[in-house]
Amino acid sequence: MGAENLTTRRSLLAVLGATGVLAACGGDAAPAAAPAAQPTKAPAATAPTPATAATAPAATPAANASAKQVEIRTNFRQGGDAEWQNRLMPKFMEKNPSIKVVLDVLPGEPEYWAKVAALYATGQVGDFIWASNGNFLGYAENGIPRELETIIAKDKYDLGDYTKVGLDNMRFQGKLFGMPWGSHCQKCLVMYNEDLLKGAGLTIEQATTSYDALYEAAKKATKGDAGSRTQFGFLPEGGQTSMSCILRAFGGETYDAAGKKVTITDAPAVEGLKWMQKMWKDTAPVFGSGFNGDELFATGKVAMAQAGYGNHFVPGEKAIAGKFKWGIALMPKGPKGIVGTQFTVNGITISSATKQPDATWEYMKFMMDPVTQEEIVLNNGGRPAARKAVLDNPKIMSTVSTHRVMRPLYDTALGWPNPANSRWPEFTTTLDQVFGPIWTGAVEFDAGLKNAAAKLQEVLDKPKS
Amino acid sequence: MVSDDALRRTAPLLAARRGMRAKDFTGWLWASPWILGFVLWTLGPMVWSLYLAFTQYNIIRAPQFVGFDNFLRAIQGIDRLFWPSLTRTFTWAIVMVPLSLTGSLLAALLLNQGLRGTAVLRTLFFITSLTPAVALAVLWRWIYQPDFGGLNYVLRQLGVVSPPAWLADQNLAMPSLMVMTLWGAIGGGTMLIFLAGLQGVPQELYEAAEIDGAGRWARFRNVTLPMLTPTIFFNLVIGVIGALRTFTTAFVATGGGPNYSTWFYILHLYQTAFQNLELGYASALAWVFFVLVVGLTTVNLRMSRRWVYYESEGSS
């Protein structure tokens, strides 16, 4: 009997304990109850805490309005973008005390895409969402971002400073759904080791007069046979965007404008691909062998590498540390008479589910502001917004070598082609898989290309996910 | 009316029953965090994923019921990567499980000899398994790099004129990954379990065998191996499941390439779900895999009756 009672009492205590633990886990309850006892001081000039702001029974409606603070949440991929949010948010909140910005850091791509989708589906997505070209349209057609034209018109925000291609990249069915926060023209640059080129009796000007000249220069600067090279003349890049830059210089495309048909077997594209194969075969480390191009360049064993905006910073002078002279130049003009580009935007969007569109728009404007942008770009926090006030910023022009060289292309860059079924991530993954054997010479070019075209077409033929 | 006698007889029973109920309740209460966690985070999602397997679902839009379409897409080969990735994964398991079990057993036997410096050797053998899979993959990627990697450097010094491209060669990528994985697998937890098993073999059995004139090999074959069969069986089951779940090394070292040569089933599932946002189809892939793993484990369990010897049962 005594034991039984004891057990029952223990059970009761356990239940009470468990209830306590569960109550403690429900963290929201405590802050909600606590502010009731707080004094109601929320000066307009300083940022009140959410608790005091939410519960402050102000004396007048005007005072109430000034004290009311709204909270917006931002979704960014981890890494540099998110780190920079932590630097920018306090500055914004200092200027806008009525808006509190909270950062939700999400994993990098591809998980980022699924995570945002899951947050949206469960009503937890941020008010402000980072969305690169890689999946921006996928989001737009699923209704995640809201169109911005209404809010822009209401605010009389001037888009005249923005580049057309920058805005076009953020359009869906003709309407603007995002702002071109960070933009670049992809791998349209050459990062070169001046000392190695000199050693081969070359200058970068000679090497970049044409694609043929680039190949010859790269071959001259290469030492050793395939698979046992000690010096590399040129490192091409993988992926759809890098390939597209080269194909477009030759007048080709990876797929048609409608995003339905693979066009890598068209004559101009084939010429570009043959050039790429020569480069991989005769001047580069073995494709897919796990080297990091930037790190390899910093060792001083690479004469030239296909490069992009970020290469001013990475590997950058910090890693190269004066071991050799290096510089940045444009890739040559191809047979089509242009430098190949694929304009790319790291966009920022406002969620269609937001209850704070105006506050989020304020944050968006802050992110697009030329002063904010200057700080971001000069410190490798992101690429420049596609607007002239940023692109022509004298400090950025004089400091960031890749920007200076790439700047002329911003006005004429070709856009981002998107598959009709929005399966770009799958397309670029497939592309690297099926081109591997072509680049390494494991299969004959024609047979490999036929196989690659068929596999890539399969991706474009799939329905939307 | 209940007689006094009947009351006397039933009272202790009722009290015991009440006591049991209270005890049961306490037991369930203590187990409830785990049960709650299991239901919420394992069983619940499993049931949900079973439903999703019969739908088209991209997370954002509501799931649309498609019947068995997802399963047919896989089984009929409409998804051209399904069968190759499944075959590749089973090939991997067929090669890797015996190799890692044998290697781990040999390492355990070596460490069970009571040699000088055994403690140091144990640490050295075990340390490889402590390397995180991602770090291991990055490290081996450098070792395998054809142009300036350590392995080809050694081969060139030995006179090999054009050494292989290893991970970049679609014919060698899979064997290269196997070597890389074995490096971490042989000295790890499997070896430790074998070592524990070896130390549990009664010494008197060896002494009796020795008196009967059994040599080293005979002792190993007739004493060690039979006594170790429960340990081997445990490692086999865990090893098979682990091998079939291979993901990280391929994801980091080769990205599934070149030309899909290391595109394993779980990598395919991951890309389908998180890159292509086909959660319905990915759930179907997960369930096909689950059924296969459960089936294989059941076969393993059935087969074990024929070859696993449990000393406590006194028979095989």
Summarize the structure in words:
The complex is a heterodimer of chains A (about 475) and B (about 325). With about 475 residues, chain A is an alpha/beta fold. Helices cover about 45% and strands about 10% of the residues of chain A. Chain A contains 23 helices and eleven strands. Chain A has helices spanning about 1-25, 30-35, 50-55, 60-65, 80-95, 110-120, 135-140, 150-155, 165-170, 195-200, 205, 210-220, 240-250, 265-285, 295-300, 315-320, 355-370, 370-380, 390, 395-400, 400-405, 425-440, 445-460; strands spanning about 70-75, 100-105, 130, 170, 175, 180-185, 190-195, 230-235, 300-305, 325-330, 345-350. In chain A, helix 12 runs parallel beside helix 14, helix 13 crosses helix 14 (about 265-285) and helix 22 (about 425-440) runs antiparallel to helix 23 (about 445-460). The longest helix of chain A has 24 residues, at about 1-25. Chain A starts with a helix and ends with a helix. The model of chain A is unreliable at about 1-65 (pLDDT under 50). Chain B is mainly alpha-helical. Chain B has a domain at about 70-130 and about 175-305: MetI-like (MetI-like fold), CATH 1.10.3720. Chain B is about 70% helix and about 0% strand. Chain B has helices at about 5-50, 70-75, 80-110, 120-130, 135-145, 150-155, 175-185, 190-200, 205-210, 215-245, 250-255, 265-275, 280-305; strands spanning about 55, 65. Chain B has a two-stranded antiparallel sheet. In chain B, helix 5 packs across helix 7 (about 175-185) and helix 9 packs antiparallel against helix 10 (about 215-245). The N and C termini of chain B lie far apart (about 60 Å). The model of chain B has no long low-confidence stretch (mean pLDDT about 90). Classes of the chains: A alpha/beta (about 475), B mainly alpha (about 325). At the A-B interface, helix 1, helix 6 and helix 22 of A face helix 1, helix 5 and helix 12 of B.
